[in-house]
Amino acid sequence: MRLFQKAKRLGTWDPQAIDFTRDGADWARFTEVEKDFILRTVALFQAGEEGVTSDLLPLNHGVASEGRIEEEIFLTSFLWEEAKHVEFFRRWLDEVVGAPGSRPLPDAKYRQLFLAELPEIAGMP
User: Fold this and answer.
1) What confidence score (pLDDT) does residue 78 get?
2) What tens digit of pLDDT does each residue of 94-105 get?
3) Per-residue b/e over 61-72, b at no fewer than 16 CB within 10 Å?
4) What is the pLDDT of residues 27-79, one digit of tens each?
5) Cβ neighbours for 59, distance < 8 A, ≥ 6 positions apart
6) Dist. CA 11–CA 78, nearest whole Å
7) Residue 24 burial (C-beta neighbours within 10 Å; 0-12, 13-18, 19+)
8) Is residue 47 a contact partner of residue 105, using CB atoms and an 8 Å limit?
9) Residue 44: Cβ-neighbour burial (10 angstroms; 0-12, 13-18, 19+)
């Protein structure tokens, strides 16, 4: 419950409240090399946040099935935070980069580890 109390105190941010105006102006001044580096980095974060968001739900179901209510409550708040991270990066890609709906993919090693091996180890389809 201590972790849940901390999550309530610190988890009150809204990705929709962030103004990306300055980010857009900065993006326009970057070189193609800088843009490529930043886009690759953001792609890693976006994929990671989506992966964590997807992977937390089965974990939450697992602790719930064991009757571990405190862990279930905390994981629910954690899932909410991860979903906000996904929204943040999605907005950044849409509004700053001007790539609505695009999903830049991380490199092959990242995809293998996080999209193939991790779900397999966790017993997820």
Assistant:
1) 85
2) 999 987 666 666
3) eebeeeeeeebb
4) 999 999 999 899 888 888 888 888 888 778 888 888 889 999 888 888 888 88
5) 75, 122
6) 9
7) middle
8) yes
9) middle
